[in-house]
Amino acid sequence: MTENRTPDSSRRSERSRRAIHDAALGLVGEVGYPKTTIEAIAARAGVGKQTIYRWWPSKAAVLLDAFVALGERTAGRAEGEPAPALPDTGDLAADLGTVLRATVDELNDPAFEAPTRALAAEGIVDPRLGAEFVEKLLAPSFELYAARLRAAQEAGQVRADADPRVALELLVGPVTHRWLLRTGPLTHDYADAIVDHVLRGLLPNP
Amino acid sequence: MTENRTPDSSRRSERSRRAIHDAALGLVGEVGYPKTTIEAIAARAGVGKQTIYRWWPSKAAVLLDAFVALGERTAGRAEGEPAPALPDTGDLAADLGTVLRATVDELNDPAFEAPTRALAAEGIVDPRLGAEFVEKLLAPSFELYAARLRAAQEAGQVRADADPRVALELLVGPVTHRWLLRTGPLTHDYADAIVDHVLRGLLPNP
Amino acid sequence: MTENRTPDSSRRSERSRRAIHDAALGLVGEVGYPKTTIEAIAARAGVGKQTIYRWWPSKAAVLLDAFVALGERTAGRAEGEPAPALPDTGDLAADLGTVLRATVDELNDPAFEAPTRALAAEGIVDPRLGAEFVEKLLAPSFELYAARLRAAQEAGQVRADADPRVALELLVGPVTHRWLLRTGPLTHDYADAIVDHVLRGLLPNP
Amino acid sequence: MTENRTPDSSRRSERSRRAIHDAALGLVGEVGYPKTTIEAIAARAGVGKQTIYRWWPSKAAVLLDAFVALGERTAGRAEGEPAPALPDTGDLAADLGTVLRATVDELNDPAFEAPTRALAAEGIVDPRLGAEFVEKLLAPSFELYAARLRAAQEAGQVRADADPRVALELLVGPVTHRWLLRTGPLTHDYADAIVDHVLRGLLPNP
DNA sequence: ACATAATCGAGACGGTACGTCAGGTCTTTTT
DNA sequence: AAAAAGACCTGACGTACCGTCTCGATTATGT
Which of residues 14-43 of A touch strand E (CB under 7 A)? Predict the structure, then answer.
């Protein structure tokens, strides 16, 4: 009965897509995620509601797309994807510290905070969106951590029997935990402390 | 004009309170949190909507209350609060492993999953609720971890310069991270791996 | 599944009812029936849409109610209904002529024309509404015609074997026909001609 | 800016025209007039929406065209126009009765009822369409009545001072009145009664 | 023991947004 | 040049809930 016709994406209006992205980000920044309605996005974008419903399944999906596109634009990259590499000075502790501090800074950046929290919250409840959130926003940087750890492992700076995925989560888990639950201040010192503790546990057995 | 009268809680109907708790938990279990509306809770509880609005500020607050009460009831405790202590067999790794595995089991329990995720999600976005969520549901067990770690520290099993709060987050952070973001299977093995890594980092300097 | 709860009319807001009537009539007069939307009625009446949907099944039903109430208010009568009697001067032709001319005037009154046409049109397509339209707006006056004709019949001015319902339709049918289909000018002369022809056919057999 | 170009009707696709007619009639029969949408007509006819908008001003106009074409096809006539004559047996009452009964039968034919009512309703509200409706569907038969009455008048069977247009409306008005308003059963007996009454009023003065 | 006052169940109300539908315009590609 | 296809903006639909509000009908003290 209800036909699930998928629209012809080759005829999609690029103008509308961009306008919707911008409107979504603008509104979330100005009035917050919960008060950002699809109706308002459409109105601000000068677009029919149907044009949103045609291409996205939910408000959160719109915002996720917009956010990803924003990240790419901000990073200067085109909508294709090569992401920059994690520094490798040879000093593992310093390298991880640098990046974890950067992560902390980003989480503390008020411009990013609102939409990121909103998307994380939606993703927690909606597995589909959660997977997309992780894949598009988190996975890339996770992979960089893992790569750097593997390099260190090969250089003998890290125990051979350590799983880089687990190590990665030991670094990132506490930080996001503190950020999400607001159980304490999210500072560079905290990032350093995490790196310090974790690396102690990863040292090769003497 | 509109007086903001705070209701007289001594006249509060215990019957209604319980009915609302039950209705909220039932609905969240059956239709999920987003489709659980205040109107539906009121209807199922056989209660006027105003009775909910009188005593709770939001749907999430209702669920949080209901969930806390459920936890207490399940644990056999009265609505007062003494929480059981964390085991201390002298073997720190074993003790932490036991408890972290229990946490993993609870997070995997389908009955608890839906409401916990919903509350976590709301808490991420709403700081007030987040604080209450942490305070009522997480803080108690966090405190137990911290106590056990302090005991181990005093016994010389853990470096004197380690911060128990940080150590705690090293244990709990990765687990909740994996649970919230669904980045991997949440198993006993994973709990053990976390404990193993973290304790290595906490050993007294040789 | 879909509960058909009927609202409690004793709690109905009289204020809203009147405001909706006025808004409906105002809008139909100003922008015409097809461009009068339920949304606009609600907005102009300062009322939630649901309040309209709660009490009326359709836009046409709203207008019909409003129109009936208007008719009663205009006629000075309260919302109860005793309708005035048709004159009986003894001269049947004169009496019928008077009333049919009045009907013609009413049909030509621009204030009444738009809503009446709209309601008639809806009634033609929707039997339920049509019945209500006839019952509430037309039947009362029809009954007066019939009564006057019966009186004439008893006075021997009309054939005993004539059916007053049919006679009534002979008078009223051509007038409404011409009005609805705009097949010719709707004048007093036309009314007189109709009365003349019809009465010839109703004279007692010589 | 937007030119109001009138399309070149010589290049019009006959195939599409017929398909649109058929789709319109089919849909009105199946789902009723209000639920028959231009979009649905286009889809069923395998035609672009623009093709409809190019050639017709409104849904009602499409249906009217389709209905007229259907009537002509049904009557076996080509799309040109000669309409059959009304019988003249010399017995005016019998002749009019025959035709009025035929009219009654047509109005009672369920296949014709839905579209006719829909068109009549639209015509009541939209004068332009109303005129077309009368002109294309009603006027031809009206003219036949008028012709027959004129013949009778010349034969001295009808008063010389009677206006055939009025006489015609005396016959047709009550029937359509009853049909449109559903104020009573539309039977052959009713048709006969109307003819009887009307002819009494048309007899030459003794 | 009873009056008094608050809570309670119920649900109508003014609103906001939802997700859907169709209208009528426009563009792209095919015939 | 007209046609099939269908994306687009627009705007109304009817529904679902929101949070507020009034209405009797219970309570539940505190004099």
Answer: 35, 37-40
Give start and end residues of each alpha helix (H) in chain D. Answer: 14-31, 38-45, 49-55, 59-74, 92-108, 110-125, 127-133, 139-154, 164-181, 188-202
**CA distance, residue A12 to nearest chain B CA (Å):** 31
Tokens standing for residue B203: 């050993």
**Residue C203, amino acid:** L
> Is there a single domain that holds both residue C156 and residue C182?
yes
- Angstrom distances, CA of residue A35 to CA of A27, A39, B58: 8, 11, 16
Distance CA A128, CA C120 (A): 53
B87 falls within a domain: no
Q: In total, how many domains does chain B have?
A: 2
Q: Spell out which residues of chain C touch residue D190, defining contact as CB-CB under 8 Å.
A: 166
Neighbour count for residue D82 (Cβ, 10 Å): 9
Q: Which nt sits closest to C46, CA to C1'?
A: E14
| CATH number of the domain bearing residue C54 | 1.10.10.60
If asked whether residues B98 and B66 sit together in one domain, one would say no
Q: Residue B161, exposed/middle/buried by CB under 10 A (0-12, 13-18, 19+)?
A: exposed
CB C122 within 8 A of CB C129: yes
Domain check: are B119 and B47 in the same one? no
Residue B42 three-state SS: helix
- D96 and D148 both lie in a single domain: yes
Contact yes or no for D120 and C123 at CB 8 A: no
B168 with B148: CB under 8 angstroms? no
Per DSSP, the residues of B1-31 read: ----PPP-GGG--HHHHHHHHHHHHHHHHHH
**Of residues D124, D167, D194, nearest to C121 (C-beta):** D124
Reported pTM: 0.89
- Are D95 and D145 in contact by the 8 Å Cβ rule? The answer is no
Query: Please, what's the b/e burial string for C71-96 (b: 16 or more CB within 10 A of its CB; e: otherwise)?
Result: eeeeeeeeeeeeeeebeeeeebeebb
CA distance B113 to B110: 5
Would you call B204 helix, strand, or coil by DSSP? coil
Q: Do D183 and C200 touch (CB under 8 A)?
A: no
Would you give per-residue pLDDT tens digits along chain B (206 residues)? Answer: 334 567 888 889 999 999 999 999 999 999 999 999 999 999 999 999 999 999 999 999 999 999 999 988 887 765 555 567 788 898 999 999 999 999 999 999 988 899 999 999 999 999 999 999 999 999 988 998 999 999 999 999 999 999 999 999 999 999 999 999 999 999 999 999 999 999 999 988 76
Other beta carbons less than 10 A from residue C192's beta carbon: 16
